[in-house]
Design goal:
A four-stranded antiparallel sheet has the order 1-2-4-3. It is rod-shaped, with a radius of gyration of 49 Å. About 15% of the residues are buried. Helix content is about 60%, strand content about 15%. By secondary structure, it is of the alpha+beta class. It has a domain of about 120 residues: 2-Layer Sandwich (Gyrase A, domain 2), CATH 3.30.1360. The chain starts with 5 loop residues before the first helix and ends in a 7-residue tail after the last helix.
């Protein structure tokens, strides 16, 4: 009798099939891991490239901002230079050179009768006017008339005081006439301060510069 062992063959086939499946599973897992590794490496490379690009862009942006700031600085310097040239042109104009004549003329025409100017000084755009008058009303009239001038601004009476009769003397009037001595009449001494505007149509910026120029020159004027 012939016997055939079919069980052993089936076990061998099953064992071979399991080995094949294991190999396939290992290959698939290896391929999956390789894919993940490649994706990770690719992502890292992309991130590195993006970071390098971002750094380059930040550097370029910094340069652009610096250039923009330099351009704004140049524009500001250009504007300041143009403003200074305009102010210099204004301060050296014909109207500015003729202003002192008009100022003295207004000062003389504003002085009423029985009022004499003893001192007129101007420094830094501010003038101090000293004088004498017979009473406070005459001084107030002079200040009011002076305030109407286009060249005198913010006219204020700073001081008034009674003069000692023994010190009374002949004083020069604005027109150059000599006032007769009046020792019997008590005189009032006064001090008036005012801002001088050499160009009535001047802008505030130019007026400030005008005052700075006058202050820097340190010159004083005296009127008769």
């Amino acid at each position: 009798m012939i016997r055939i062992n079919l069980i052993g063959n089936r076990e061998g086939e099953e064992s071979s099939s399991r080995r094949t499946e294991g190999i396939l599973a290992g290959v698939v897992l290896g391929l999956a891991l390789a894919g993940v590794a490649m994706a990770y490496l690719s992502q890292q490379s992309t991130m590195s490239n993006l970071e390098a690009t971002a750094a380059t862009l930040e550097t370029d942006l910094g340069k652009i901002r610096q250039q923009d700031q330099e351009f704004k600085t140049m524009e500001q310097q250009k504007k300041e230079t143009e403003d200074k040239l305009h102010i210099v042109g204004t301060l050296t104009s014909k109207e500015r050179r003729a202003a002192p004549v008009h100022i003295l003329d207004d000062l003389s025409s504003s002085a009423p009768e029985y009022l004499w100017l003893t001192d007129f000084t101007e420094r830094g755009g501010t003038t101090r006017i000293n004088g004498k008058a017979v009473d406070n009303q005459t001084i107030a009239s002079f200040a009011n008339d002076l305030a109407k001038s286009r060249y005198f601004q913010k006219v204020e009476i700073r001081e008034t005081a009674q003069e000692d009769e023994t010190t009374a003397s002949r004083q020069s009037s604005p027109g150059g006439k000599q006032a007769p001595p009046q020792p019997q009449i008590p005189m009032k001494k006064f001090l008036i301060e005012s801002m001088i505007n050499y160009l009535p149509g001047l802008t505030q910026q130019a007026a400030t510069s005008e005052a700075s120029v006058a202050k820097g020159s340190g010159k004083g004027k005296e009127g008769n």
